[in-house]
Structure formats: C-alpha cells, structure tokens
Amino acid sequence: MAPTAVPVSGTQLNSPAPKGKEALANGSNTAQLDASKIIYKFTTNLRAVPDEATANTSDETICTDHMITAVWRASTGWEAPELKPYGPLSIMPTASVLNYATECFEGMKAYRGDDGKLRLFRPNLNCERLNVSASRISLPTFDAAEMEKLIVTLLSVDGPRWLPKDRAGGFLYIRPILIGTQARIGVHAPKEALFYIMAGFIPRLDSYPGGMRLHTSPDDLVRAWVGGYGYAKIGANYGPSMIAKQGPHMQGFHEILWLYGDKGECTEAGASNFFVVWKRKDGKTELITAPLDDKLILSGVTRRSCLEFVRQKLIGDIEVTERKFTIGELFEAQAEGRILESFATGTGFFICPISQIRHRGQDIMIPIDPELQAGEITHKIKTVLGDILYGRANHSWGVVIPEKE
Ligand SMILES: *Cc1c(COP(=O)(O)O)cnc(C)c1O
C-alpha cells in the first residue's frame, strides 16, 4: 500500500494524524521522509537582505537564500531532502497540481525574540496538520517530526542573516507546501509529489488602527460546507474565496465574516478563526468560537492556544465554549448590550481585535479600548501569547532554533 492510502482521521489537533515512522506506509517498504539524509547545496550568490519596510511593500514575496525540497514517488517513497538556492521549480504543464489543485500548505512564523533567540511556536501542530491536509487531497503523508527538523534546518541556515539578532520583534514567514507533480492528465491521486519549504517576509497584520472591520459573506457564496474540506489547508479553499472581497460592499472593510447555512452560523473571519467575548443571558462572561466537529473550519494553532490558555483560567473566570453560533445571536446580544469583545486569530493576523461587523446593511459595533487598541481580554491573551513568541516568557510552546554564534 502506498503512503497516499494511509488513513489519517480527525481534524482536531487533539487527535492528530499518526505520529512517527511506524504510523506511516503500513506494510510498505518505500522510503520515509528522513531529515538526516539532507544534502546541502549552498548558494554561491547571497542576496541582499531588505529592511522590513522594503520587504513589505514589494509586489513579490522576498524569500531567503535557500529552500528545502523533497521528492516523493509512490514506487520508492521519499528521496533525500535537499537544501538549495531559492529559485524557480521545474514541473510539467501536465502536473497534477496545475490541473487538479492537488496542493496543501502550512503557514507559520519564526520570531526573533527580545533575548536574541529565534523561535517557532508549536511547530509540531503545523507539521501534524499538513498530514491531515495531505490525506484530504490524496497527497502522501510523512513523519511530522522529520518535517519539523527540516524547517529548523532551513532556519538555522538562513535565520542568522535574514532575521539578525538586532531585529528583535521581527519574524520570517515559513511556507511548507506539498504539490502533486505527476505529469499525467486524468483525475487520480498523483504518484509523484514535491514537498518544499520556503521562508520570506510578509507584512504585519495584527493591528488595524481602530480594529478590524468585517463584512459578512454574500448570500450566494460559501467558503466551506459539510462534507467539503474547510478543515484542510489546501489551496482549493482559498482561490475561490477571493471573489467575496471584491465589490463596493467591501469599501471600508478588511475581511469577510464567513457565514454558513440558513441560520447564518459564524465560522471564520477571512482565513482566520473568529472569536467573540460576550455576556451570556445568565450573566456569565463567555469566550465563544465555532466548533471543529463538522469540519467546516480550520483548526488554527492560534485558536487552539487561545482556548487552552483561557480554559486554564489564567485571566479570570471566563467560560470557554466551542459551539455553533449565528449572526442573529450576535445582533440579539448587541441589542441587549451583551457583546464585549471580538477578535480574529491566525499566524498572519496573530490576534487581531475586531471593531465592526456589517451584515445586510446593519452594523454590530464592538468597543475597543483606545489605550490598549483591543478589548481588555483580547489584550491579555495577545500579551501572554506574544510573550511566548518573543521569548519574554519561557514556555514549552516556544521552540528555539539552534544558530551558530
Ligand atoms: C491558517 C488558517 C487559520 C489560522 O490557523 P493558525 O494555525 O492559527 O495560523 C484559520 N483559518 C483558516 C481558513 C486558515 O487557513
């Protein structure tokens, strides 16, 4: 049995894809992804590192000097990974990914801490999630721990120059991606795939002045549906969603609040998870977000970290609830003065306060403390998680990348 056929069940990161080599390619003798076999082909042409402002205004994502690639074939398994100069790929026009969107990816960041160290945030969860996505789109799975080692390898090589120690508070964006490369027309699981990892600059998104403003999705568009693949980070979820942000309704708004079903269940804000803090009818303060069980939403690492953190009651007595909730409930709560805060979470936006939601011409306005530029609870969560990202607090969620002195 080829690795593509390995069942990886569950979208909840609490019950992730199987771990370790033993979980893969049952009964198969094809080669596993093995980070220790990496072949180094260093660039002879180190490029100039742009400052943050230049990097963020470029029309093209500026990537670091190197990337890591690994080829998979159904017959032989994973070849030795290579670290090589960042540059164009060569794939045939008939490649599976170009015709049938056999693609999945991850998004994470490496953060330059106040202490000068470079850290990843819970990278194991991203690596496990890529397996969940890969199995949904008929691409091979692999040992998540090996993938994590490859990410660390790329960053130990390019991190010191591209995000030097004097850029504390900065980050590099890391994009691991898996594509079906078999050069054959026909709708079937690809027998060849390419995994690669690149690192580069993306703009900071966590603070819109005055908060993020959401517009609900148009009535005739859905992002994801039950039985679909909203829980998987596969390209097919994102290309078709972009159209929702086009048109005059988006004037003055930043992202779409994706509603689902006749009742208008609140699912995600753009490509981020969506949270509301409100007073329940019984007077209790509650942090609420959409559930994972119907596989509509992506199980964000940031989402999970917020939930785990608030459940530990570290910022006061707040109930944490994962359940379906509708736009109608938000309007009702607004009319009763029960909405306290709202925010979006994800690696791109980190934790981004939301100040307004417009639905069918009516607005929900959410207060934002002008000093904190967030609600009080949002601000606390953001501070605690930010302290872990940037090494101000020592926590097992922050994984230090070894670098040469
Ligand atoms: C990536 C993503 C998120 C956020 O996930 P993080 O792991 O927190 O970065 C949320 N929703 C969608 C649709 C996403 O693609």
From TrEMBL:
EC number annotated for this UniProt entry: 2.6.1.42
InterPro entries: Aminotrans_IV, Aminotrans_IV_CS, Aminotransferase-like, B_amino_transII, BCAT-like_C, BCAT-like_N, BCAT_family
Keyword Amino-acid biosynthesis: yes
A Gene Ontology term for the protein's cellular component: mitochondrion
EC category name: transferase
Chain segments carrying region Disordered: 1-27
Catalytic activity of the protein: L-leucine + 2-oxoglutarate = 4-methyl-2-oxopentanoate + L-glutamate; L-valine + 2-oxoglutarate = 3-methyl-2-oxobutanoate + L-glutamate; L-isoleucine + 2-oxoglutarate = (S)-3-methyl-2-oxopentanoate + L-glutamate
Keywords: Amino-acid biosynthesis, Aminotransferase, Branched-chain amino acid biosynthesis, Pyridoxal phosphate, Transferase
Gene3D superfamilies for the chain: 3.30.470.10, D-amino Acid Aminotransferase, subunit A, domain 2
Family: Belongs to the class-IV pyridoxal-phosphate-dependent aminotransferase family.
Name the UniProt record assigns to this protein: Branched-chain-amino-acid aminotransferase
Native source species: Clonostachys solani
